[in-house]
Design brief:
One of its GO terms (molecular function) is peroxiredoxin activity. This is Carboxymuconolactone decarboxylase family protein. It holds the Pfam family CMD. By secondary structure, this protein is an all-alpha fold. It has two domains: 35 residues; 79 residues, AhpD-like, CATH 1.20.1290. It contains seven helices and no strands. Helix 1 packs across helix 2 and helix 5 runs antiparallel to helix 7. The radius of gyration is 15 Å and the shape is globular.
Length: 115
């Protein structure tokens, strides 16, 4: 889990205001990641898919940034959004693709309202 200094503004503010809570949250995330055999790039792609399914634009942005830092190709990130089409529907998958492209292609820097 990232240090609170690296978190987006609001999340970083909460982490600084409640450091014990944030440490517990970070420890939970690490424990969940270590709970089974999924690791590396597969783990990051699963987390991206979960953020897409949860309809979390901030989560999608975060996992895309981290995936790129970990060397995952942007085409793989975009494929995760396309894989969402049959499960979540075309409009939600397209929205997720635009969130991914915000990071991979630098298309937008400010959040866009959700439909």
């Amino acid at each position: 889990m990232r240090q609170h200094e690296e978190l987006p503004a609001a999340a970083g503010d909460v982490a600084r205001a409640y450091p014990e809570l944030y440490r517990a949250y970070a420890a939970l995330g690490e424990a969940c990641a270590k709970a089974g055999p999924i690791d590396g790039q597969a783990l990051r792609l699963v987390k991206l898919a979960l953020a897409i399914g949860a309809w979390s634009e901030g989560g999608v942005h975060s996992h895309c940034r981290r995936a790129l830092e970990e060397g995952i190709p942007k085409e793989a990130l975009k494929q995760v959004a396309l894989l969402a089409i049959p499960t979540l529907g075309f409009p939600k998958a397209v929205a997720a693709l635009t969130w991914i492209e915000d990071i991979t292609d630098g298309k937008r820097t400010t959040p866009q309202p959700r439909p």
